[in-house]
## 1
Amino acid sequence: MISAVEMAGLLGLPAPTDEQAAVIESELGPAVVIAGAGSGKTETMAARVVWLVANRRVAPEAVLGLTFTRKAAAELGKRIRRRLAQWRHVVEREHPDDQKHLAQLRAGEPTVSTYAAYAGRLVSEQAMRVGAEPAARLLSQALSWQLADAAVRNYSGALPVDIGAPSSLTRYLLTMSGQFADHLVDPDDVEQYCHRLLERLAVVAAGKSLPKTGSLADFATSTAHRAALVPLVRDFAAAKAARPAVDFGDQMRIAARLAEIGEVRVVERARFAAVLLDEYQDTGHAQIAMLHGLFDAGHPVTAVGDPFQSIYGWRGASAGNIARFAQTFRRADGAEATVYPLATSFRNARVILDAANALAQPLRRLDGLTIPLRAARGTGTGRIAVARVETVADEARWVAGRMRAEWDALPAGARTAAVLVRRRAQIPLLSEALQAAGLPVEVLGLGGLLTTPEVVDVAATLRVLGDHKPARSLVRLLTGARWRIGPSDLAALRSRAVSLVRVDDDPTQPEERERASIVEALDDLGPADRYSAEGYRRLAELSAELRRLRRRLSAPLAELVAEVERSIGVDVEVAARADRAAVGRTHLDRFLDEAARFAAESGETTLRAFLAFLDAAEDEENGLEAGEIVVETERVQVLTVHGAKGLEWDVVSVPGLVEKIFPAEPKSMNWTRSRHELPGPLRGDGDDLPPVCLDGAADLAEVRARLERHHDDLVERHAREERRLAYVALTRARTAVLASGFAWDHTKTQRAASPFLLELRGFAPAGEWFEAPPGAANPLSGQTLTAAWPADPLAPSGGGAGRRSAVEAGAALVRAATHEGPSGLPPAAPGAGAAPERPATHWRHDVDVLLAERARLQRGDAIEVELPRQLSVSQLVELDRDPRQLARRLHRPLPMAPAPWARRGTALHTWLEQRWKAQTLLDVDELPGAADADADDADFLALRAAFERSDWAERTPAEVEVPFEMAVDGTVVRGRMDAVFGSTDDGWLVVDWKTGKRPTGAAAQSAAVQLAAYRLAWARLCGIADADLHTVRAAFHYVRSNETVTPTDLLDAAGLRALISGPQDRGCGRAITSSA
C-alpha cells in the first residue's frame, strides 16, 4: 500500500501533515473532518481521492464530491482531476505494464457537483417514483421572486389589515416556502399548529383580553398572521406546479423523499463507493435527510467542515449538524463515525490565528469538537491594528488611511484587500473614503452594487422610466451632479405639476382628486418664464432625453440598461475617474450582467419586474444573492461578511465593530415574534433551538414569562452566531487585519464598543481609542451642516483646488475642434437637445446631413459609424473579419438574403437538440451557425452519420443551447453556445458545431473570435475570474470532415475589449469606417 507521504513524493507535492495523512489514509467508512479555516481541506480531499484510487480501493468514477457553490465545485473538481492526471503520469512512467490500472485512470473521473445539482440529477432520473415531474423547469431566484409576487397580487382571500405591504408579503411568502421545503414541513402542518397555539392561548386567557403590546401581543399577532399566510404558500406552490417548475427547495424536498426508496438507495450506493461532503456545517435538514437516506448504514461518507464557520443560520443551516454527524452516519456495526481534526492553518499569520482562537474560545467550550488553530511552519507574524474613533466619518477616514498604507507596502501586481461590512448601509461612506485615498474600489454583491454612485444613477433613470412612483428617483436626477436643478426651479416644476392636476368640481368626491406628478410636469414644462433660463434649458433637455428613452422600453432589458447608461453619460464619467485603470466600468458591467441574467432566467422581462427585483435586493440585508464572488487582484473589494465566506485576501478591514452593528441586533430570529418564521418545534433542527412550550401554563403571566425567557435564550444563541461571523471575517486575512469602531453616528447616546473589538485590542499595538465622557452629547447633532445647492461636482472639496477650470478648458477645446461637426458634416441644429423647436427646423437639418453624406460618398470618402452598444456574436466575428462590411450594414441596415442557416434550427442542430432533449427558442442572431460563413445542411443524412462516427457521439454535454448576454467594456454581447462539456483535464470545453468547411488563414483567425466570446461567456456564467480563463477551452467541430479544432491563442477578456473598443477608444465607444 502506498502511504500519503510516499504518494506526495511521487507527485512532487509537499508532504502532508500528520493530521492530513490520517485523513488521507483513513479506512473506507463514515468519518467527519473538523477542518479549521485555511487548513488545506481542498488539497486534503483531493489527496484522499487519489490515495483511494492509487491503492485500488475505488475506481475514479465511483467517487462523488459535493459542495455548495459552482465555484467551489469547479475548484475541487479541477484539483482532483489534476492530481489524478499526475498519478496517471506516475503510473505510465513507473509501471507502464499496469494496463488495467491505466485503463481505469483513463476511462473515468469523479463526479464533483453542488448539493443542489446532485439533487437535481437524482430528481431528473427518479422523480416519477414519487409522482413528481422529472423535467420540471428549475426556477431561478429572479423567477421565483416574480411568481411569489404574482401570487400575492392575485390572492383573493382575506388577510389581516396590519400584515404588511405587498412587497413585504412577497418576502414573507418566499421565506416561508423556503423554510417549509428546508425542514420538510407541509403547509397543513403549519396551519394546524398555529390554530392549536391560538386555541391554547385562548384557553389560558380564560376570556380575558390580551395586551395590546409586549411579548403576548407579538406572539398572538405573529401566529395569526402566519396562519393567514399559509394559503399564499399553497398558491405559490400551485403556480409552480402549473408551469411545471420547481425551485431549489422543492428539488431538495423531492430528493429527500426519493432517498427513502430502497431501489434508489441501491442505485446510488452502487454508483458511488466513496462520498465526500464539503462545507457540511452549511447543510440544512432536507439535505441531510437526502444524504442520510442514501448513504447511511456504514457507507463510506467523509464530511468536511468547521462549526465555527456555520454562518447561514438564517438560510436553514445549523452549526449542530456537523456536531451530530458521528451519530447520524454510524458505522456498519453501529459505532459512531470517526472524527479527525485539521488544525494547521496555511493561510493566516500567527497573530491573526492567535486572535481568531481567542475569539472562538467561547464557542469551543460549547461544541467540544474543535481545537485551536496552529500556524504552519514559516508563517509570518502578521499585523492587527485596532482603533475606536469619535465618529463614523472618522472611522471611514481611519480605514482608508490604514488601508492605503497597507496597500502601498504590498508588492504591486498581485495585491488583494477587502473591507468586510456587517451592514450594506456602511458601504457608501467607506467606499467614498477609500476612493478619496486613491484606492481602486470594487463593491460586490447586488445589494452593495446598488449603493455605488454610477449604478444608483442608472437605476434612478430606470425607475423614472418604469416605476409607478418615480418622483423620488426623478428628484435625485434633478438635484444630482449632472442636471443640478436649483430650489427655485424645483419649486416652479412643482407648481407646474399642481396646475396640471385635473380639478374635480364634484364636492361629494374629494378622494378622487388626482395627485400632482412632477414627472408629468417635466414632460409638459409650460411657459419658459416660470423658470430660470438655464433651469428651463436643463429641464427641457432632460425631458427630451427621457422621451427618447421611453421609446426604447420595448427593447431587451440588457439593451435598455446599456442605452440608459450611454444616454446619461455615466460610462464616460467612470472612464474619466482616477481608478479607471483598476476598476473603471466594473460596477456598470456587473449591473448589466445582473440585468442580462434576470432577463435570461425570468419569464417576465419587463422593466417594472426588474425594478421590483432590485427593490427586494435593496431591502434584504442578507439579501437576494447575486452569484458567486471572485477575489480580484489590484482592487480593494467591499462586501458583506456573509459574502466573504470561503475567500481570502492579503489585508482585511472589519469596520463597524460597535453594538447593534457588529454584533448586529437580533431581528427576525424569534418565531414567537416574527410572522414568517417557522415555529421551532416544527423545524428539523428543533433540537438545537431553545425550547418553548405553553402546555401547563396557569395564566397569561406565566405564558409571558415563558415567551420572554425563550426570547432571551434566542438572543444568546444569536450572539453566538455573530461571534462565528466575526471569526469568519478575521480568518479571511493572510497578513493584516484592520479592526475599527466609533462612538457616534446618528444615535442619541454613544455606541458601546463591540466585544469583538475589545477582545482584538489585546492583540494589537496601542492605538487610537476614543471614549466620550458619561452624559456627553452627540457632537454630530450639534453640527450645522452646510452645502451648496445645486452641488458642483467639480468644485473644490477636501482642501483640493477643484477641477472646474481645467475641465471647462478641455471642453472648450473639444467644442472648438468639433464646431463644424465630425468629418465636415454640418453642425447640429441650433438648440438641439434643449427646448423643443419647430419640426421644420429639424427636417431641414436632416436633409442637410443626408446631402452632405451623399456628397462624401460621391467623393469616395469613408463614413464613420459608431459601434452599437449591443452586438451579436456574428457581428463580433464580422467586426474582426471585415469591419468595413459591418460598418456598411450598420450604417444602412438592409434585409439579408435568405441563407441555408438563417432559420430556426438547421436540420443537424434540430437533430442534436432532439438527441440531447434540449429544444429551445432562438432569436435570429442566435441561430445555430449564425456566425458561419458557409453553413451547409443540404446532405443531412451524411452529416448525421458523420457525427455518429465522431468521438462526440459518445459524450454527454453538461449544457446545450446556452443563451447568454454579457457586458464587455460597456457593450452587450449576445449569443448562444451549442454545447458545453466537462473537460477531462482542464475544466470546461465549449463546442460549436460547424456544418461547413474549415476556414484557413485570416478567416480561421476571425472565426476564432466566436469561440473567444463563448469561452468568456461561459466563464462569466460560472463565476470564473478572468485570471482563470484558461480553465475554459473552446473548440469548433467540423461535422462533415470530423475535425475538432481547439485554438490555443483565443482572445482573452482584454483582447475582446480591445476588439470592441478599437484603437480609437475615446471612452464612449469605437467608431468604424466604411468606404463608398
## 2
Amino acid sequence: MFGDSTKRLNVGTMLLTLSWLGWIVGCSAEPSDFEKLRKQQQHNETNQATSKQDVDEQIVLAKQELKLGSVERAEAMLEPILMSHPDRTDVMRLMAEVQHRSGSPVAAADLLASIPYSNPERSSAAKLKAVDWYLQANAYEPAIDLLNNATETTTDQDRVRHRLAEVLNQTGQRVVACRVLQPLIRKGKASERDLFSVITRGEAFIDESLSAPDFSKLSLASLSLARRQHDEAKLSESNELLSDLRQKYPESTAIAAFQGRVLADLQDFESLQAWRHSLPSNIQEEPEYWHALGKLASHRNDHEVAIRCLGEAIQRDPTDRNSLVLVARALRQVGLNEEAGQAMRQFELLERTAELAKIFGLASGTPAEYREMADLLSELGRPWESLAWERIAVAMTGSQPLDQTALSQKRKQLVELEASNPALQLAPSVPWSRENLSQWPLPAALDSATLDRDHSSQPQGSSQLNSVPAPIRFRNVAPLLNLRFQYDNGDDQTDEKFYLHQQTGGGLGVLDFDRDGWVDLYCSQAGVDALDSQSPTPNQLFRNLSANSVQDVTLDSQTDDRGYGQGIAVADINQDGFPDLLVANIGVNVALKNNGDGTFSRAELPGEGDGKWTTSIACGDLNGDHLPEIIEVNYIDDPSAFEIPCVPDNDACGPSRFQPAVDRWLTLDARGAFQSFLRSEGSSPNAGHGFAVLLGNLNGQLGNDVYIANDGDANHFWQNRGRRASASVTDGSLLADSQLPPTNQATWLAEETASLSGIASSQLGGRHGSMGLAFADFDRNGLPDLHVTNYWDQEADLYLQEEGKTFRHSSRHWQIHERSKPTVGWGTQAADFDRDGRADLMVLNGHIVDHRHRGVPFRMLPQLFQGHDNHFEFVSDSTDADAGQRDEFWSQPTLGRTLAVLDWNRDGLPDVFANHLDQPATLLQNESAPRAWLQLELIGTHSERDAVGATVEIQSGSQRWTNWQVNGGFLANNEAVLDFALGDSEQPCQVAIQWPSGSKQTLTNLPPNYRYVVTEGDSEKPWIRLSHSRK
C-alpha cells in the first residue's frame, strides 16, 4: 500500500553506515574533544585486547561486554570483525542488537532484516524481531513493507500473516488486515482473536493484549486513533487528526478514504467536495472512498449514483452496516422495495453479528453463541468464517468423530466450490453484486454546483419567516397556586445505594377531566417497594380553578391509585366524551375511566406477571375501527432488576445487564374489554428497554404509526402499511396475528422500519441510551421531525424528516450536539414558546449515578433551545436581559425527569409542567411577549374521538404551518390541543384538516388569537372556546 519506501541495505552499505553510528546514536550535540579522545582510547584498548584473539574469541568477548552493559566496547569490538568478515550472520545479528541497545531501533531493524540467513526459520524470526524494533520507534511503514515481502518469501507465512494483520489493525488499516487473514481462515489456522477482528471491518480494533501504539507522536498508527475518535462520535477531533496524517502520508489511500467518510459524517459537504480533488491514486480500492461518494450522492438526491457508490463500498467491505442501510434507502427511493428489503435483511444479520462481537469482546462466548455466529456468517455469504466459528464451537463442546467428519466434509465442499468459483462471487440476485451494480451510473456527474448545496440548511416547502425570535420568559407559579407535589421514589437517602427503577421519575397527565374548559393535572406517585400495589402515598389529581389556584381532588375523584407509578396517558377510551386516565406501573397497569360526574372507576389492564415494568403508555386508533388501541412500552423483563442495587463505584444495575421487555399492544373488543392486539411470545422483534412512545401519523401516509425510544437498544418505528378486514398479519418484522373477535376484524398492517427510515440509532449507527421524546416540524417542510434525549456523553438525536419517509440526522447541523452531549437528558418538549412561528426545545437533565468524584455532574441544569430557520440557539435559562427577572428554575441544578406542555391559563402561550426526583413539581407559566396564535381542539366522529392521527395545516398570509394530533411521550401526556404560533402574521387563517378516517375538512377566515373547537364533518363554523364549560 505504501510502496517499497524503505530500501533494504546491503552489507557493504551497512558497514559504511555503522562506522559513523558511534558519533550519532544517542547524541543530541557534537561530542566534546574530551569525549572524542576517551572514545579513541577505548577503541585502541579494545583493538589491543582483541588483536591476538581469533574471531570466535572476539565475538565471545563482545557478547560478554554487551551482557555487562558495555555497548560501546561491544560495538568497537564488532566493527573490525564485520569489516573483515562481512558474511558472518552471527556478527551482523550481534551488531544489530548493539545498535538496538544503543538507542537506534530503526537502524538495528534495518540491519537485522538484511541478514541473509540460509535457515528459513532463523530468517523469519529475525524479520519478526526487526518488526518489533520498528514498532518501538513508531516506524510502521518499514514494518509493514517488511512483513508484506516476508509473506511472499518466507516459509513461515502463517506466522508472518498473523503479525502483519496485527500491525495493520493497530494502524487502522482494517480492511487490508482482513484480506491478509483470509488465507489463514481458509486453512483453518485463524485464531479466535483473528476471527473476532474480521467480524466488523470498518470499526477501530486495537488488540489490548499487544503493546499500545504511542499516540503522543504522529505516526501511521494514529489512523487507529482517528477511527476510535470516529466511533466515539468525536468527528471534529478525528478530522483534525486525519488532516495532519494526510500531510505526513499523502499517498496513503486508507487515511485519505477515511477522512472522506468522516467529512461525510460531519455533513461538511463543501470540504468533502474539495477532498475529492486531492486524492492519491488507487483510492478506488478503499470502501470508505465509495461510502463518502455515496453520501454525497444521497445528499443531492442522486439515488442512482448513490446505489452504485454504496454498492461498491459493500463489495469491498461486506460488513459495512451503514452503507447497507443507505443503499436500502436509495433503492426504496427509486421504487425497488424488494431489493431494499434484501439490503435490510442483510443489515439485520450484520447487526446481530455486531451484537455477538460485543459479547465475545467482554468474555468467551458459549457454544450456542458461536454456532449462531457461524449460521449468521453462512447466510451472509462468508462460508470460511462460518466454518471457523463452527470449529470453535465444536472444540468447546469436545470434539466428537461425527463433528469432525462433518467439518471436514464442509471444508471439502468449500474447496470444490472455490475451485469452480475462485472469488465466491455474490449471487446475481443480490442488488450490490458486481453484475447488478454495473447498471447504475458511476459518480462522474457529481459536480460541485449540486453537491455544495446543503439540503438541511433551508426550510423545505416553506419560505423563511420574517419574524425574529423573541425573549422567552417563564415563572414558576406552583407555590402561588398551592400546587404541591413531590415525587417519592422510595430511595433511602441515608445510604449510597439505589435501584434502577427509582431513577425513571413519575408521570404527568394533562386533562380537562370535568370539562369546565380549564386543564387539570394528574401526577403519578411511587412508594417504597416497587412491587407493592398498596403504597401509602397515592397518585394525585389537581383541579384547575380558573388558573387562580388548584384543588387536590384525588380522594373525591377516586383516582388514588397506589401502585409504583411510572407514566401517564390520557385518552377517551370508551368514546363518551370524557377523558380517561391510563396509569403505567411496575406491576399492574390501571385504567381510570371517567364517569362524567367528577369520579373515576378503576379497572386493571390484563396482567402478565407481577414484575412487569411499564414506563410509558400511548393510545390511538391503529386498525381503523374508531376505537383506541393501547401500547404499553415496557422496560425490563427480569425480577432481579429490583434486587440488584447501584452504588457510585459500581454501575452493575445498568439496563444492559437485564433482559429487555416486550412491549404490549391492547385493543378493545365490542364489549369494552381489553385484550391482546399483538401476539409477542418469546424473543419478539419489538423487545427493548422502552422508555418513550409516540402514536400518530408520523409518515404522511393515512393511518397511524408508532415510534418507541429504547434505552441502549435500537429504537423502533412501526409504520402503517394500510388496513384490511382480516384477522392475520404476517411478516418477519410485521405485527403478528391479531386476536380480535369476529365482531371487530379490522387489522393494522405495519412494518418496523426504524433503521431503514434513519431513526433507529445515532448518526453513526450506534445505540444510544434514549429516554425523552418530542416532535414538531422543526424545519417547517410540512413533515414531523423527532427529538430524542440520551444518556451521558451521547448527543441528543435530532431527526429531520425528508420526502420519501426518511429522516436526516441533524444534531450537528442544528447545533445541539455539543450542548446535549455532557448531559443525561430526560423529558423533552417542543413548543413555540416565543411565538415567532418556529418550534423551540426544552429539556430536563440529571444523572442516574452520583459520579461527582469522577468530575461528572450529578444534578444538572435544564436547557432551553430557541428555534431559528435552520438551527437552534442555546439560550440556557431565560432570554430576558434582566437577570433579576430570571426564575431560579434555570439556575438550580436538579435531577430533572418529566415534562408536559399545556396552556394552563388559557392565554395562548404554552406553559410547562416539570417533575423532578429531588424537588417539588414546577409549573412554569409562560410570560413571554404575546404574538399571534391559533389553537384547535379536535373531536372525531367518523374517526376515534380524540382524533389521534389527524394532520392540520394552517395558512396565514403567505406562511404555512403543520401540526399533528398525537398521543404519548416520555411518561407524560400533553394537553390535547394543536397549537400554532403565527409570529408577526395577524391575517385570518385557512385551516385544512385531514382526519384519521381519511375525510378532509377546510375552514376559512378564522381570526387568530382564539382557540377553536372543531367537530369532524360539522359544516358549521367552529365555535370559539372562551373561559366557559363545554357542558
